[in-house]
Backbone:
């Protein structure tokens, strides 16, 4: 009869940190991979996600001085290669008009290499109609990989004139790159960052903007004396409502706390005790000589007891946000 006599529990006793670096695109501009998994969420070690893009400011408006073919750009802050940068307000930034009365799009950008505002001119169209295809005639240009797009200026005249507000476009995700768009979620178990929609290929290549993060992986240590591990799992119940001629049923799911009992040395200086109330990873091996294990992440709670004639111990709970995961290796 199989038992857990040879089982083992490990807890997150430390962290290996990874400095701010680019994540790896899975190939769909939507899922980006961290270099390690699982990812620690202990206070001070949780991932810091910094895609390239504007944090604040960088608003493009018609030139206040009324200069022809000019726009002004407000002061801005942005993330560049995982670091925050800032640029003072810039006035009278000149756009390029088409050679004839056809469509032309100019991208107003922050150049990460020079730390200055730069204009990237698109290719003249064949008519006054605009294209939404990057790099196409009459469409927005592919901007350099080391640039952040602030807005687009769209004109159809080759005659110098004051830029109108209606000729400036700054819809986030279409004409403007902000660091927090689209929103993303982190898979801490498998080390993946998933955006709500694919990052657009607006940079030369074509390619999307780069996504940077700093993060950490857990360092596991054995609990030398532990027993009675219970994983965090969903339990299901059903409720019913009696109506004329039949009964309507509805199911409900509840996630239980994971738990185990740890036997301590003095109940004060034990490594596990020092981590109470921390958000940690735990591994449970049903057989310490085999590779399969159960992985659980949650906040550690302790209820210690100090009996006069028995081992000092702690009833430990793991308050998880999601169910424990089975891993084959």
Residues:
């Amino acid at each position: 009869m199989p038992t857990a006599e040879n089982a083992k529990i490990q807890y997150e006793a430390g962290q290996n940190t990874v400095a701010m670096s680019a994540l790896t695109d899975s190939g769909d501009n939507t899922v980006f991979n961290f270099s390690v998994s699982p990812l620690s969420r202990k206070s001070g070690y949780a991932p810091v996600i910094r895609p390239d893009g504007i944090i604040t400011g960088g608003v493009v408006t018609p030139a206040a001085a009324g200069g022809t073919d000019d726009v002004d750009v407000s002061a801005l802050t942005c993330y560049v290669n995982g670091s925050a940068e800032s640029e003072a307000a810039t006035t009278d930034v000149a756009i390029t008009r088409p050679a004839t009365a056809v469509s032309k799009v100019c991208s107003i950008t922050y150049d990460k290499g020079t730390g200055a505002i730069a204009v990237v001119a698109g290719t003249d169209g064949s008519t006054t109609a605009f294209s939404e295809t990057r790099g196409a005639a009459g469409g927005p240009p592919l901007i350099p990989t080391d640039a952040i797009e602030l807005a687009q200026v769209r004109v159809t005249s080759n005659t110098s004139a004051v830029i109108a507000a209606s000729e400036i476009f700054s819809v986030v995700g279409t004409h403007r790159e902000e660091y927090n768009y689209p929103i993303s979620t982190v898979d801490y178990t498998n080390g993946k960052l998933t955006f709500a929609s694919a990052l657009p290929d607006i940079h030369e290549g074509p390619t999307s903007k780069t996504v940077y993060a700093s993060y950490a992986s857990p360092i596991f240590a054995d609990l030398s004396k532990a027993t009675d591990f219970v994983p965090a799992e969903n339990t299901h119940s059903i409720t019913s409502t009696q109506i004329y001629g039949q009964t309507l049923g509805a199911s409900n799911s509840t996630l239980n706390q994971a738990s185990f009992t740890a036997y301590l040395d003095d109940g004060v200086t034990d490594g596990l005790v020092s981590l109470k109330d921390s958000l940690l990873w735990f591994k449970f091996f049903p057989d310490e000589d085999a590779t399969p294990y159960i992985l659980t992440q949650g906040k550690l709670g302790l209820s210690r007891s100090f009996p006069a004639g028995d081992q000092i111990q702690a009833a430990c709970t793991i308050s998880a946000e999601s169910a424990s995961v089975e891993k084959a290796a």
The longest strand covers residues 8-22. Residues 221-327 form one domain. The chain has a mean pLDDT of 96. The chain is about 0% helix and 50% strand.
